[in-house]
Amino acid sequence: MELNHIPVRRQNLSPIVAILNCTMSDSLLRKIRILQRLPRWPKSAGTQEIRRYLESLGLETSLRNVQRDLIDLSCDFPLLYDEDPQGHRWYWDKNADLVQLPGMDTDLALTFTLVERYLKTLLPPGVLDKLNPHFQSAQNTLNRLPKRGARAWKNKVAILPRNQKLLPAHIQSHILEQVTDALFFGQQLKTHYLGRSYKEAKEVRLNPLALVFRDSVIYLLATKGDEKQIRQYSLHRFKAVKKLPDKARPPQGFSLDQYISEGHFDYGKTAEIIDLKVLFDAEAAVHLSETPISEKQSLSKQADGRVLLKAEVINSSQLRWWLLGFGAQVEVVGPKSLRDEFREIAQALLNRYQE
To answer: Is 206 exposed, middle or buried (0-12, 13-18, 19+ CB in 10 A)?
Structure first.
C-alpha cells in the first residue's frame, strides 16, 4: 500500500502558531481534537470516524471540513494517509514525536510516570500502545528538571498490593480497540465468545454497556441481543469481535455505579446485607479502627483481650476471602450460617493437613 504525505510544509512555525494562522472559518478546537484523535501508525482513522468523534464531543461539522482540516494540519504535523476505497485513512507517522496539546506540565508528567510503574502490568497491550508515547514524553519532561523535587518523587513512593499479585490475562489488542470504540460510539458488537463451560466459541451479538477493570481481568458489561439481563464477559475470552453499524440498545436507566453497589461483582453469594459479628485477636483488629469495613461498624474490647467487630456488610465471596486471610486470628460469631460455613472450612483444612 502506497504511503502518501501532503508535500506542502510551512517553515519556521510552531504547531500552535500554525493552527492559529489557519483561515478564520476553521475551528481551533476542532483541529486540536482531530490531532488528539488520530492514532499512531500502524493504526489509522477514516474521515467518517473522525467526524463522528467530533460530533460526539458536540463539535458538529461536515465531512468536507474534516478533510480540509486534515490536509491543512498535515502541512505542519507528520500526518500520513493511506488510500482506501471509502476515503483516506489518516495516522501519525510512527517516528513522530508525541505532540502535547497543551504541553505536558510537571504534575502531569509525574502522574504518567507513576501510572507506568504501578499499572503497566495490569493493562492489556492495546492500552499500552496508546500510553507508551505519553510515558516517554513524561520521562523526557522530568529529565529536563533538576535531580530533586518532581524528578526524584517517583523514587520516594511505593504501592504494595495486600493480595497476591496476578499477571493480567492476555487480550488481543484489536479486540480491546473494537470494544472501546463500540462503547464510545454506542454501537453493537458481533462477537465469538468462549465461556468457561463452552467447548468452542459461540457467536453472540452484544449491546455493550461498560468496562470494569478488576485486578488482572477486564469485564465487559453487556446485554445479549434483545434480552434485558446484564451479563459479564471477560475480555480475554473473546476470540473475535467486530463493531457493527447498528446502535446499541442499553436497558433503560442503567447505571454502572448502581450495578456495582448492588453487589453484582461479589461472586458466589447473594448481595444481601448481613449483621456480621467477628472476634479478632487484638493485633489483627488494630487497622479496623483506622480503615473500617463498613460505615455501620462498632468495635468493643472483650474480657479475653480480643476485639468484637459488629458491622453491616454484603454477604459476598470477597468477605469470606478477607476473613480467611486472617487465619486463626479471627473467629466468626454470626450470623450462624456464616459461622457454620467457617466451621466446615476449618474442619476440611484440618482433614487435609492431617492426611
So the answer is: buried
